């Protein structure tokens, strides 16, 4: 994992068709609260706040828990969420690298400017992974309702959303997704089918109207 983020390794596994095994959803209080007619309006309100921001930037910490090894890997850096282009993870520690996840590709950049592009055309699992991440991070209420059984709870301004995949290709990599926040997303945890998990903690959010030319270039292999 030296030069690649843990999430990139997951994408490689999906692109290569690595076997995944059944896993029950995690034990978390949010799954005691199915989305209901009483909480649906608030769910739509929160998704609307997230969806109206075309670009979100900030700092992330990523923690990958590997259950079979009883070990955790931590990385951190900057993130960009662009509702149209995709998501960028600019890892600064422990090893610098930049990864852009688009609709049907991954572009990995390393210091010095070298880029590697992986095409995912025809790989249904990766395409659904990309769609899922986009829906989660941009608050796409329709996709969340179509592709997941939703659970929702709120305390004051803080909310938690639990997602259990309904569609087979999403279930192949995620047993459950848990996200929490207030006026912004503060954390997203993906519980994988093999018992591992990836947790993203997001902070120092900013909301520019559009990306700069250098940032847009991160989504290009050239």
Verbal overview:
The chain has 222 residues and is of the alpha+beta class. It has a single domain (23-203), classed as outer membrane lipoprotein receptor (LolB), chain A (Clam), CATH 2.50.20.10. Helices cover 24% and strands 40% of the residues. It has 6 helices and 11 strands. It has an 11-stranded antiparallel beta sheet with strand order 6-5-4-3-2-1-11-10-9-8-7. The longest helix has 15 residues, at 124-138. The two termini are 25 Å apart. Mean pLDDT is 82; it is low at 1-23.
CATH class: Mainly Beta
The total domain count is 1
Largest sheet: 11 strands, antiparallel
- For the termini, the CA-CA separation is 25 Å
Task: Tell me how many strands there are.
Answer: 11
Quaternary structure: single chain
In helices, the fraction of residues equals: 10-25%
Give the structural class: alpha+beta
CATH superfamily: Lipoprotein localisation LolA/LolB/LppX
Secondary-structure blueprint:
Elements: H1 6-16, H2 40-51, E1 55-66, E2 71-82, E3 86-93, E4 97-101, E5 105-109, E6 115-119, H3 124-138, H4 141-147, E7 148-155, E8 158-165, H5 168-171, E9 174-181, E10 185-192, E11 197-206, H6 213-217
Antiparallel strand pairs: 1-2, 1-11, 2-3, 3-4, 4-5, 5-6, 7-8, 8-9, 9-10, 10-11
């Amino acid at each position: 994992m030296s030069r690649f983020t843990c999430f990139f390794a997951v994408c490689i596994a999906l692109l290569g068709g690595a076997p995944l095994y059944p896993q029950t959803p995690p034990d978390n209080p949010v799954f005691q609260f199915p989305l209901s007619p009483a909480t649906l309006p608030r769910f739509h309100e929160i998704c609307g706040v997230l969806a109206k921001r075309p670009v979100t930037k900030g700092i992330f910490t990523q923690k990958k828990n590997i259950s079979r090894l009883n070990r955790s890997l931590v990385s951190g850096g900057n993130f960009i969420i662009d509702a149209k282009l995709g998501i960028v993870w600019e890892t600064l520690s422990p090893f610098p690298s930049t990864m852009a996840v688009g609709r049907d590709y991954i572009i990995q950049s390393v210091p010095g400017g070298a880029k590697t592009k992986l095409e995912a055309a025809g790989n249904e699992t990766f395409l659904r992974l990309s769609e899922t991440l986009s829906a989660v991070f941009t608050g796409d209420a329709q996709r969340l309702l179509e592709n997941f059984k939703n659970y929702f709870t709120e305390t004051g301004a803080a909310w938690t959303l639990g997602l259990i995949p309904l569609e087979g290709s999403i279930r192949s990599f995620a047993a459950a997704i848990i996200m929490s926040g207030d006026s912004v997303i503060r954390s997203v945890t993906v519980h994988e089918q093999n018992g591992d998990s990836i947790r993203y903690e997001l902070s120092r959010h900013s909301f520019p109207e559009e990306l700069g030319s250098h940032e847009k270039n991160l989504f290009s292999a050239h």
